[in-house]
Design a protein that fits this description.
3-stranded antiparallel beta sheet; two-stranded antiparallel sheet; 229 residues; alpha+beta
Length: 229
């Protein structure tokens, strides 16, 4: 297909909101399948053994703006809508701004509940985007030594972001694996392996209590692989 034909097709799709919803709904479903199966060949236990173990550094000087002043962009989407598109299904879209998820269904990994997301002032927080390795936790375990561009990458990295139940995310706050794990026990292996992948990628460390908690979880799934990202 030449560029002229592609432009005509694009305009036709944009003219129909129904066609647009179906198109992105299919895209989201495909992406979910890809994310679910996107794992490296490295075991989480192996990668955990390569992460430094240290005490928690002081929180002095911490500010989220030192990482990112709000969400950055990933392609045509801001990071929040990118993750909603990746993690939700049965998505509908707002006509503007571009790439704004209006509604969708989340199979929440933290609670195993089905959540019906509806964008709005009083409803959007039902689904929040969690930093799997909390920003404050990262600051106290090595992120102070990262460059501003590395901290920006950490904050907006899809590897470190999940759409989850809002109230449960609030309960987690800035906890590490030593003090908080998802209520949904079936997800704990995936959760811990993602934290390990993020900490290894950004050269962050773990405390001894955090490492021990991760090891206990991984004993139930010794062949757990870390996700790609």
């Amino acid at each position: 297909m030449n560029s002229s034909s592609a432009n005509k097709l694009s305009k036709k799709l944009l003219a129909s909101s129904l066609a647009l919803s179906l198109l992105f709904g299919l895209s989201a479903a495909i992406t979910q399948t890809t994310v679910a199966s996107a794992a490296t060949s490295t075991k989480a236990t192996t990668l955990l053994s390569k992460i430094a173990v240290k005490g928690r550094a002081p929180k002095a000087g911490y500010d989220r703006d030192l990482f990112s002043d709000g969400w950055g962009n990933i392609g045509d989407c801001d990071a929040r809508n990118y993750i909603l598109r990746r993690d939700l299904k049965s998505i509908t879209w707002r006509s503007s701004p571009r790439c704004t998820v209006a509604t969708g269904i989340l199979n929440d990994p933290y609670t195993a509940k089905k959540i019906y997301f509806v964008r709005g002032v009083s409803t959007s927080n039902a689904v929040q985007i969690d930093h799997v390795v909390a920003v404050s936790d990262a600051w106290q375990k090595g992120a102070q030594q990262l460059s501003s561009s590395q901290r920006y990458s950490f904050y907006n990295d899809p590897l470190n972001l999940l759409a989850v139940d809002g109230p449960t995310n609030q309960q987690k706050s800035d906890s590490d694996a030593a003090s908080w794990l998802p209520p949904n026990k079936k997800y704990r292996c995936s959760y811990v392996s993602r934290q390990i992948a993020v900490k290894y990628k950004y050269k962050l460390w773990v405390t001894s209590a955090e490492r021990d908690s991760m090891r206990r979880v991984l004993k139930t799934c010794p062949n757990q692989l870390v996700p790609k990202g």
